[in-house]
Every structure is written in structure tokens, then in C-alpha cells.
Amino acid sequence: MNDILAKILDTKRTEVATARQMRSESEVLREAQSRQDIRGFARAIEDKIAQGKPGVIAEIKRASPSKGVIREDFRPADIAASYACHGAACLSVLTDVQYFQGGYDHLRQARAACSLPVLRKDFLIDPYQVIHARALGADCILLIAAALAPAQMRELETVAADLGMDVLVEVHDREELDAALSLNTPLVGINNRNLRTFETRLETTLAMLKDVPAGKRVVTESGILLPEDADRMREYGVQAFLVGEAFMRAPDPGTALHELFFAR
Ligand SMILES: O=P(O)(O)OC[C@@H](O)[C@@H](O)c1c[nH]c2ccccc12
């Protein structure tokens, strides 16, 4: 497996080992537990949908391995404030440094600039990272089914739940969906992008929809670029969206959010 996902996961194993040496898990846990500021992530999405609006998770990312640098003028606090005032339900902030040019400060600054719940967008493989997510202020974590065994996902979900965080579990095919459905979380992200090849097809979401039981909330992820893309998803009953690039390339990300979802 010399694909990009495998490479990223190797990097993460090294990162976790280094982080543990710098600061013990019990110390990070104390910091995480001392925070009393959790914001309901799944709740915020459901509230939007109950109001007849799309539940938009608006992403803050400077670069990606498939696209390189996406946004030069990168100020997380300004972007977060713009998203918040244009109707985002939640934020997603990349914290991976090496592949996405993200950072812990991006999450801290974005969250401090608004009152939206925040997803830590990273490749989580170890309880240490989940605990650290809450210490940073995250309200939700991402679990990527392509990167984790089912038992590992369940373990990380339990760690997140114990800290009051929500979980977004991400899948790309049927087998991953089966594993994801063994979790408690209602939030199931269907990634239209294959993390191994970067191929992006909106049909990925549409084809898997019928296999997601009632009671789960589908979030369509990646490659939503045009109002037509959002409309197409809505025709199929998809009401929650995770969008990055379309907003990051626009002069004002929040205005782009408005145009993609609310302009007609
Ligand atoms: O920028 P896009 O195509 O709108 O996609 C956003 C989001 O779905 C994408 O960044 C993403 C989905 N799953 C991930 C896992 C890791 C890193 C990034 C991602």
C-alpha cells in the first residue's frame, strides 16, 4: 500500500509517538476534561434542517495533497466569522500540517471567532489524538473508515463520547458503510473523493444512500462545487453537506456559501 492514505497514516503514527513524548496522555486528558465549552455539532446540523435549511459544515483548509495550495490569503478567524454570518451550521478545520498545511492554531482561532461547533479534520488513529482534539476545543472528530478497523473506530468513538464530543464517521464504499453503521453516531459522511486515488464522483453519495438506515444523518462530502451539485443532492433527500474548496477559492468564503446554498 503505497497510496497517499497509507503514507499519511505512517506520518500520523510518528506524530503520535512524538506528541506522547512531549506531553503525556494523562496531562492532555486533564486539559480536555477541564474544558466546559462543548458545542453540539450534530445538534447544530439538525437545527438547520428542522428550519428547512441545509446543514452546511464549512471547511477551513489552506491546501490539500490533490490540489496543492487552495487559498493564499488564509486567516482562519476571518473565514470562520464569514461562514458564521452566512448560515453555516458548523465548521471543519484541518489540523494536519504536513499534507493540508493545517494547524492547531487554525482550529483555536476559528472557534474563538464564532459560536459554531467545530470538527477537527485530521487522520485520527489513536485515543491520544481524540483527547487532544477536545483539549484544542474541538466539538466533533472525524473517523475515517478507510483508515481504521471497526474495533478501533468503536474505541475512538467511546473516547470522544466520554469527552462529550460528537463523531462524524466517513465512508467511501459499502464495506466501510457496514463498519460505520456499527457505531452509535448518527452522522455518516459519504466522501465522494476516493482518498487513495483522489477521484471525485458525486454518484458515490447517490449510490450509497439507499443503504443508509433511517435514523442516520447522511453528510455528503467533497466535490460540491456548484449550486446544481447541491440541488442534485437535495433532490435525493440529502440535506447535510461538507464543503471546502468551493468556499476556499472564493474571495469571501461566506458569500460563496450563500451563493452555493441560499441564493435561490
Ligand atoms: O474541498 P471539498 O472537495 O469541498 O471537500 C471537503 C472535504 O470533504 C474534504 O476536505 C475531505 C473529506 N474527507 C477528508 C479527510 C481528510 C482530509 C480532507 C477530507
From TrEMBL:
Organism: Castellaniella hirudinis
InterPro entries, sorted: Aldolase_TIM, Indole-3-glycerol_P_synth, Indole-3-glycerol_P_synth_dom, Indole-3-GlycerolPSynthase_CS, RibuloseP-bd_barrel
EC number: 4.1.1.48
Residue stretches making up the Indole-3-glycerol phosphate synthase domain: 5-260
Catalytic activity: 1-(2-carboxyphenylamino)-1-deoxy-D-ribulose 5-phosphate + H(+) = (1S,2R)-1-C-(indol-3-yl)glycerol 3-phosphate + CO2 + H2O
Protein name according to UniProt: Indole-3-glycerol phosphate synthase
PANTHER family xrefs: INDOLE-3-GLYCEROL-PHOSPHATE SYNTHASE (PTHR22854:SF2), TRYPTOPHAN BIOSYNTHESIS PROTEIN (PTHR22854)
Entries under Gene3D superfamilies matching the protein: Aldolase class I
Pathway: Amino-acid biosynthesis; L-tryptophan biosynthesis; L-tryptophan from chorismate: step 4/5
Leader sequence segment: none
Alphabetized CDD domains for the sequence: IGPS
Family (UniProt): Belongs to the TrpC family.
Top-level enzyme category: lyase
